[in-house]
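Give me the fold.
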Amino acid sequence: MVSLALCLMGRADDTAASEVRAGASKEVLQLPSGVPLAGYGRRRGKPSTGVHDPVSVRALVLEKDGATIALVSSDLLIIDETLCEAVHRQLAAEGLSGVHLILAATHTHSGPGAYGTRFFEKISMGHFNRAVFDEIVRAVTQAIHRAHESLAPVRVAYATSLTEGLVKNRVIADGPLRRELTVCAFYHAGAEPFAVIVNFSAHPTTLGAWNRALSADYPGVVMREVERAFPSATCLFFAGAVGDQAPVKQGSGFDTAEHLGGALAQRVMPLLEGLHAEVPTTLAAFEEHYRLPPAQLRAGRWVVPRWLGARLVDDDATLSLVSVGDLLFVGVPCDLAAELGETLQTAATSRGFHPVIVGFANDYVGYCVPRALYEQKKYESSMAFNGPMAGELVVQRLMAMMDQLPGDQVTR
């Protein structure tokens, strides 16, 4: 049921060559005028009206003992495997083959569309445009190259805190909440970080279908403010388990994104103060293509025949793990529900890791929800394309993959 696609490790020893090195870079997307926005089918693929704030790609590259890993945050709605494979091909053509990639979307609903080819992608993105697709591939590979050129020995730090009043469960009024704000900081020789990762779980939907201007939504505000406070740093944003998590909106128009992004940025700054950064001794990555249950598409009370569903949605999920010392990045190719995110976080913590759930990574298979939520027949369950058990199976497999990671921090 599972095929192992990639496994690479950097081992700890006493030579200088075994140091973990890292670099970061940012690339602004140069998109065709009028590119449709992705995120709301109600826009019907209409052309965008301009740029409210730049949409970008940010990359953090890590290397040890010849193993190269790239963590990429992109101001996009989703990542599909076609896009991820194109990035791998382009990197190989430019001399960077064998890179382990976690290519993630921030899930902004005001980013560019027109880069997806599947049926459901066209509904939310508009018709495919080769120029848009090629520009995304160019920006991702360029950001990775530039980050790779700036590699230097790295120290890392981690901090997390709980927020109040910024996120709500959009399915169940008193349902599970993911209130954690997580920050990872990466340092070279200086006292200020050269890269910061911010992780938070709320749908980037502060801007509704009314918006027709390109925008990174509230994640863009967070990254802008962190980079403003640390001008030499690249800030990456990773969406966590956002499947049933909605932002608490204040204000109207673009002020809603500014308010939430600004509130998160204000909480990031204290977390970065007084951090104790450590030199990581291990670097590891695993990726698997996991076979999902057959498609079980529903349209109201009508169940789509399986032969048709198989043509419309994916039948496997790309699952990824990257560990940098005791930091663990868990790449999930979906809108992951909060309950399942909590299960993954608990599993990683019990194994001695500091977890960061990276949603919308390397692939997209719709929503992954607990069976109880699936049975409620909400929007989220209708978007759970592979049936009631797919989410729990994905989580179980990721937990099994955690036990394959190296280091004394793993408790078996």
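The longest strand covers residues 2-10.
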